[in-house]
Design a protein that fits this description.
This protein is of the alpha/beta class. Helices cover 31% and strands 26% of the residues. Helix 3 crosses helix 10.
Length: 337
């Protein structure tokens, strides 16, 4: 190959989904030609790629986005620019965060300028790879769509997961009273140690009584729900009048239903959150949200938690940890590890 920086290999290793199948049967490490950056693109050496629950669902075709086969999974990564294409605003040596629908779990990737943002100096590559998707989702939901005000009460379901833990961290940074809900004692202890929410509960049964007691009978101003199912049903009973129940996902497996007389009588809103689509439809707001999250990270007011960082050869363990609900925060793959 030509036009590559000196001492660069001609091939690289990637994680590839070649078939949609259960039990990760269609996933494996593959060797591919080294990419070259086009106009207004940069070639990035990926130091860390973070996995989220959608990456697991995509291996079986169960996510709403269904990229053509074969594809490289991974929506976010962090690394260092090694070569800039013609007209690119990036330069070799720039440390960046990569945002993409697919294509993050690679040793090197060529990405459009717009897909890259500067890595906050306060974060490691692994932390930077874990920042964007979870924290932009949390910020768009809580601050933008949820219109949170300092002093309001925020309940976070699934608080140990990637997007849930980000919501706990961000809620504290925004001056909210945060009530975290997690399923196991181990997860609750970790959340308390990492981000010290104001209260932490087990759920899903008994949440209404506990939250009403903690809020003096008012209920929660905001509920951040990436779980669905039983905890959503319970949230309909303790969301405050004028509150906002934010639907982020269905990690619990069951898509809940609500009779419309309940939000009518209780006076709360049920609002769907698709942070990526929100940013695409309202690009100026999306850019402002990203800038605010990066500012909070740069100032050290928020910091993603990396559950584990595994070499590319151990990719299966990273996926199984997600499937078995063992991950607290984000699992990261090190393509050069």
């Amino acid at each position: 190959m030509t036009n590559l920086p000196a001492m660069m290999p001609e091939t690289m290793h990637v994680l590839e989904v070649s078939e949609l199948a259960p039990d990760l049967a269609g996933v494996g490490v593959a060797e591919r030609p080294m990419p070259q950056p086009g106009a207004r693109q940069a070639l990035v050496r990926i130091e860390a790629a973070a996995l989220g629950f959608p990456d697991l669902l995509m291996t079986e075709g169960l996510y709403q986005a269904k990229p053509p086969l074969p594809f490289v999974p991974g929506m976010e990564a962090a690394g260092e620019v090694v070569e800039a294409g013609e007209g690119s605003r990036w330069r070799a040596g720039d440390k960046v965060i990569v945002a993409t629908l697919t294509g993050a779990v690679v040793q090197y990737g060529a990405y459009a300028d717009a897909a890259l943002i500067p890595l906050p100096a306060a974060l490691s590559f692994a932390e930077g790879a874990s920042l964007r998707a979870a924290y932009i989702t949390a910020y768009t939901a809580i601050a933008r769509i949820g219109r949170a005000e300092a002093g309001e009460t925020l309940v976070v379901h699934g608080a140990a997961g990637g997007v849930g833990l980000a919501a706990v961290d961000l809620g504290k940074a925004l001056g909210l009273t945060v009530i975290a809900v997690a399923s196991t004692a181990e997860k609750r202890e970790a959340i308390q140690r990492l981000y010290a929410p104001d209260h932490i509960l087990a759920g899903p049964t008994g949440l209404r009584e506990q939250i009403l007691e903690l809020t003096g009978g008012r209920g929660a101003d905001l509920v951040y729900d990436p779980v669905g199912g039983d905890v959503f049903d319970e949230a309909c009973r303790y969301t405050a009048f004028g509150g906002r129940l934010l639907v982020v996902g269905f990690a619990g497996g069951r898509i809940a239903e609500v009779r419309t007389n309940i939000p009518l009588i209780k006076g709360f809103s049920v609002v769907g959150v698709r942070a990526g689509e929100y940013g695409r439809r309202f690009p100026e707001r999306g850019a402002a949200d990203i800038a605010e999250v990066m500012r909070l990270a740069e100032e050290g007011r928020i910091r993603p938690h990396v559950h584990s960082a595994v070499p590319l050869a151990d990719w299966r363990e990273a996926y199984l940890a997600m499937r078995e609900r063992r991950v607290i925060g984000r699992t990261v793959i090190l393509p050069h590890g």
